[in-house]
Task: inverse folding
């Protein structure tokens, strides 16, 4: 790990004041899980290929059913590639996403090695997305997943085969300040809270 990446990781493991103001854990966990959040503001600082590949390398090691690794990463980083992505990202998201220096279209193979349906493909690719987001945060990067895009147009523009399902576009880059973000999003540019853990746990019990 480079010294630059080590410094970014140490910073990511600290809870910033803006995070403390909106988030607290019910039980002890690593600060990396609490401090990562999906900002919309991006600076004009470029993301190096080495850094991008480290983010994708982390995603490569996500768990998957039968080790099928269904995830695929369609990456845009040149001006020409970014314009292709902007052609199918919906206008409401482009207001903030246009400043991101990297887009990653997360896709998943719907079939296993035998050409049979893989029922876990989207679930497994979700695990890869979570791993990608955490690694990006440890490197001092921001990520935000975009569900609002025209999937049919994306498939056509990028010539994506039918056996890949298009799940989300991820904006990746270094976080910018509020001055780099459209004022319509200023009030929303803060870490979102989570419901209490007890509200998500369902105790197993036999049917009455």
Result:
């Amino acid at each position: 790990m480079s010294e630059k990446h080590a410094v970014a990781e140490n910073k990511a493991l600290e809870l910033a004041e803006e995070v403390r103001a909106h988030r607290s854990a019910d039980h002890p966990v690593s600060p990396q899980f609490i401090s990562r959040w999906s900002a919309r503001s991006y600076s004009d600082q470029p993301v190096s290929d080495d850094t991008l590949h480290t983010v994708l390398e982390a995603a490569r090691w996500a768990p998957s059913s039968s080790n099928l690794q269904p995830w695929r990463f369609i990456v845009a980083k040149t001006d020409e590639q970014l314009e292709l992505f902007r052609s199918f990202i919906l206008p409401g998201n482009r207001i903030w996403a246009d400043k991101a220096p990297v887009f990653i279209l997360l896709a998943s193979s719907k079939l296993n090695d035998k050409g049979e349906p893989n029922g876990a493909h989207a679930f497994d690719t979700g695990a890869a997305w979570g791993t990608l987001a955490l690694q990006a945060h440890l490197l001092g990067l921001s990520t935000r997943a975009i569900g609002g895009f025209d999937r049919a147009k994306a498939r056509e523009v990028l010539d994506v085969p039918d056996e890949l399902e298009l799940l989300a576009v991820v904006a990746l880059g270094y976080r910018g300040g509020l001055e780099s973000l459209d004022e319509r999003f200023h009030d929303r540019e803060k870490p979102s809270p989570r419901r209490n853990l007890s509200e998500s746990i369902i105790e197993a019990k036999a049917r009455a």
Summary: The chain has a mean pLDDT of 94. DSSP finds eight helices and four strands in the chain. Residues 22 and 193 are 6 Å apart (CA to CA).
